[in-house]
Design brief:
single chain; mainly alpha; 8 helices; transcription regulation; RNA_pol_sigma_r2
Length: 189
C-alpha cells in the first residue's frame, strides 16, 4: 500500500516533469510550513529567514527536474538539505559563524545534568534555540536536530571537530540556563 506522502511527492515530481505550472503552488502549499521551521532553527531574524526561504525555493524550483525520487520522504529530505545549506551559506555571508569563547558567555559553573523540560512547549524551546549565539546555534542544530557527527559539522562549517564539540557543549549550557530562567519566571507567575 502506498502512503499519501509518497503519492503526494510522486505527484508533485510528475507535475514538474510535465511542466505543469500548478506543481510550484502544490509544492509550496504542502512544504512551506515545514521548510520554514527548518530555516527557523538556523536564522534568527524573520526578514533574513524570508530571504533564505526565497533563495531555497528558487533553488528547489530550478533544480527539481534533476531530483531523483528514491522513496517515501526523499523529496522532503532533499528540500530540507537545500534549506539547511542555504541557511548556512547565508550565515557565512553575514559572518555570523563566529565561534563563541567561553570567556564571553558569563556562564556559571554548571553540572552536566539535563534541565527539566516539564511544562516547556516545543515552541518555547525552538525560540530559545533561535536565540543561541550563531556558531552555537548552527552546531547545535546540525548535531542535535540533523544528526550530523562533529566530523561532518567540521567539514560543513570549516572548523575542527573539537571546535564543533565545544560549540555543542556551550550551546547545551546556554540552553540549560535559558530553560532554568524560563522555569523560574513561570514559577513566579
Amino acid at each position: 500500500m502506498r502512503s499519501e506522502e509518497t503519492d503526494k511527492e510522486q505527484r508533485i515530481i510528475r507535475l514538474f516533469h510535465q511542466g505543469d505550472a500548478s506543481a510550484m503552488d502544490l509544492l509550496y502549499t504542502d512544504y512551506a510550513g515545514y521548510l520554514t521551521g527548518v530555516g527557523f532553527r538556523y536564522i534568527s531574524d524573520d526578514d533574513d529567514l524570508k530571504d533564505v526561504l526565497q533563495e531555497s525555493f528558487i533553488k528547489i524550483f530550478t533544480c527539481i527536474n534533476s531530483f531523483t525520487y528514491r522513496g517515501k520522504g526523499s523529496l522532503k529530505a532533499w528540500m530540507t538539505r537545500i534549506v539547511i545549506n542555504e541557511s548556512l551559506q547565508f550565515l557565512r555571508r553575514q559572518q555570523a559563524s563566529q565561534i563563541v569563547r567561553m570567556d564571553d558567555l558569563d556562564l556559571p559553573d554548571m553540572a552536566e545534568e539535563e534541565p527539566d523540560l516539564t511544562g516547556l512547549s516545543a515552541d518555547s524551546l525552538s525560540e530559545m534555540i533561535r536565540h543561541l549565539p550563531p556558531g552555537c546555534r548552527e552546531v547545535f542544530n546540525l548535531y542535535a536536530v540533523e544528526g550530523k557527527s562533529h566530523i561532518e559539522i567540521a567539514r560543513l562549517l570549516n572548523i575542527k571537530p573539537d571546535t564543533s564539540a565545544s560549540q555543542f557543549h556551550r550551546a547545551r549550557a546556554i540552553l540549560a540556563r535559558m530553560i532554568r530562567k524560563y522555569q523560574l519566571k513561570k514559577a513566579r507567575e
